[in-house]
Amino acid sequence: MSNKVNWFEIPAANMERAIKFYSEVFQQEMKVFEVDEQRTVALLPPGAGMAEDIEPFGTLLQMANFEPSDKGTIVYFDPVDNLDMALKRVETAGGKVTFPKFRIGNGYLATFMDSEGNTVGLLEWDKAYPFAETALSKNSPAGI
Questions:
Q1: Among 11, 7, 19, which residue's Cα sits nearest to residue 71?
Q2: Which domains does the chain have, with CATH numbers?
Q3: In whole numbers, what is the pLDDT of the chain averaged over residues?
Q4: What Å distances lie between residue 7 and 1, 59, 67, 91, 127, CA to CA?
């Protein structure tokens, strides 16, 4: 089995609020789809923490019994432009920085609570280190 992430879903209690929040943070519009009567999804935009040419591989999801939480797995996005600027956008959009920017090995990370109450992270690799070399370091599975 590969360790590649194929898909993730971030719970949204209020889809309109969550879309507004993530659109402001990533500075891109999101595509919204009603999957059926019980599920609505909003695709994270290309470039939202990934290379511009990579299609979205995750969504915001609103459905019964899928509730936002500050406990559990944390998804870390690439802030794309600059971690400090992204954290300012998080706060401007109504989120709360829960763990300020700090140094880890070859980069920096921070976590925040989104508009729905989920803990989400941002991870910025040092520009001097190619991602593949950093992330696949033999010293640590995450290059941390």
A1: 11
A2: 8-135 (3.10.180.10)
A3: 83
A4: 15, 8, 18, 26, 26
Tens-place pLDDT, residues 76-124: 988 878 999 999 999 999 999 999 999 998 899 999 999 999 999 999 9
Residues 6+ away with beta carbon under 8 Å from 137: 105, 106, 143
- 70 CB-side CA count, 13 A: 12
Tens of pLDDT, residues 5-53: 778 899 999 999 999 999 999 888 888 888 898 999 998 866 555 555 5
In this predicted structure, the answer to whether residue 62 has a pLDDT above a threshold of 80 is yes
**Residue 42 in tokens:** 């909003």
Q: What element of type H or E holds 98?
A: strand 96-104
- Residue 17 and residue 13: Cα distance in Å, rounded? 9
